Amino acid sequence: MRRPFGAIARSAWARALVSAGLLALVLTQIDLSQAGERLSGGRWGLFSAAAAIDFVSFLLAAWRWHLYLRAAGLESSPATAIRAYLVGTFANTFLPSQVGGDVARAFLASGSGPRLRAATTVVVDRATALACLIAVGWIAAAASPGEVPGELWAALGAATGVAGVGMAGAAFLVGSRRAARLVPARLRGPRREIAQAARACARKKVLAQTLVAGLAFQGLILLAAWLLVRAISLDLALPALAASLAPVLIVSLLPVSLGGLGVREGSYVVLLGYAGLAPADATVFSLLGAASFLLASLPGAVALVVRPRAASPAGEGRSAAEGTR
Predict the structure, then answer these.
(1) 68 falls in which pLDDT band (50, 70, 90)?
(2) Are 249 and 133 in contact (CB under 8 A)?
(3) pTM score, two decimals?
(4) Distance CA 214, CA 51 (A)
(5) Is 168 helix (H, G, I), strand (E, B) or coil?
């Protein structure tokens, strides 16, 4: 069982086939005429607003990540963090691998510094952002529990459990002395560096700041999704939508498709179906969400092409002259 799954995870062509197959399966189960009616009657101003809010959320998320970079001792300016984050988001959207963008932003943010520390901040940023999305889901669902079907409560609970187990396992591997003894001698140095960066990111002051920023960031993501719901006039309650976001995200992170395409649509069809949404409506919502995210990530292509301005030759000359005195 491991070998086929591993082969799919490593092969972009295999994941493309899985995405195409899953999308085809979803499309065979929906009323295409109903989907066309939703799109033809859509309010595209709301779609544009959703894409704009997604982009603003990227900027907030980049500033939040900058706090982790600074805590880990990396001399990265907010502008550098924003550029790296936008490039990473663009890469995650357009590359076959969902981790390629994370590698890119760790590389760009580290500069000539320790890239292992930068990579650690990316992992911490991802994990805590997921925790914030789960928290937003619980807060919204608890505000109006009657509008959330039992199946969505269960899905949100399962997402919370999966995230909790994953974070606890990572904390054990990084912080436990028992786990340290299991690491080969040649890897103990890198593990120590990862542990130091992770502990720096977990300081109370840093976590307090990033928690507030993370809740605001995920609140914007929920708002953008809600605007898409309104754009195509879906009969879906906000608490039910909020409860579905984290479970769908976790499932779509499985490395079996291109950027979660197909997996995400199927997940929304199942989960939002419990809230009374037709498969066609759930599919249109999911694809619009992907399109909004794609549109919001396009500035990352500009950030990738336009490099930061290097120090002026005059400034370099002054530095060289001062060094010879």
Answers:
(1) very high
(2) yes
(3) 0.84
(4) 19
(5) helix
